[in-house]
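Ticket #4471: structure output looks truncated?

Reporter: J.K.
Steps to reproduce: submitted the chain below (387 residues) through the standard prediction queue, then opened the result file.
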Amino acid sequence: MTIRPTGPDPKKPLRMGVLGCGFMGKCHTNAYKKIPYIYPAANVLPRLSLLCDKDERKVQAEAVRYGFERYTTDWTELVADPEVDVVDNCGPDPVHPEPCIAALANGKHVICEKPMAIRVADARRMRDAARASSAKAMCTFNYRFMPAVRLAKDLVASGRIGVVYQMRVNYLQMAGHDPSLSPNQAWYSAWPHSGGLQGIGSHAIDQCRFLVGEIKSVSALVRTFNKDRAIASAGDPDAFSDEGTAAVLEFENGAIGVMESSVVATGRKNYLSWEINGSKGSLRWDLEHPNSLHACVVTGENSLFGFSEVNVTESFHPYSGAWWPSGHNLGWEHGHIIEKFHFLDAVANQKELSPFQATFEDGYRVAVIIDAMRRSSLTGQRVELRY
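Returned output as attached by the reporter:
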């Protein structure tokens, strides 16, 4: 047999421009590299066109390591480059608004890491820019695309657990539990000083909205226990790098919720968890066991009444079919890959965004809720939300 070249990939290329080459830039790039061979039937081929970071030595090295064709230190060049179709903003939180707004004005499709903006006014401008543009825009709330979370969404929406009464959600980390750490040694208080509520609490809030519904009012306490870390945010001088939040939520559908975020939860590395209780059943899930959805559904047989563990890896489970055989687990990175695929598939093939995608409207509403939690903590009063 004669050895032959494989030939070019017939999929439609989408030229990616990524802002930021740190943790999330690496994560998103990993997704773009895996999409073509995990989703071979889709007409989409992400091409790593341009990487941007203000540190020239770093961005040059990372562009080679990641496989980008070019690099720049100026985000204005990134958002205007005719060789870029999609701008993916993985930069620090204060650098989210202006590049995203400029990219949308230039007709680029936009992906923005959460939190979309620290100031509500900036989030509103981003939301309005997305509304005014013909391009597509997504805020990265990747946990929506974990198969077990999506299955829970479907079960709640179908009425399988009845009327939803309550939700409890936690996002806990231990990054700053040691009081001897300087502010620069804890990610949430280091520049840009965004805080734990923005960094991980935003995910918890999005899970509440995604699974149960819109939030009507909040009552919250927001604290920094190590006072030297209570630094004014670079994105909003009225905000600060908080370490713990406890909030009571009122949903528009009548359900109530309790939300906690903490970056001083000793022993917890990256623990997102929730439980939803309804009139016909309950669901619970956590990120440390991402493939397991624990479900209790009333069936009329009470002798075995309680939670059952469902391993969400079957081909008929949401999002799982594209991956591995039954029982072969997915992990943290896969939520990002699945999310980015659905966005790029919509861009490449002129589809509407998935109804499960987090839009810039979602990012804006999370910003409104975070701001309300801060105000509630300052005033000691419950805050009604106005979107």
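Triage note (M.O.): checked the attachment and the full token line is present. DSSP finds nine helices and 15 strands in the chain.
Status: closed, working as intended.
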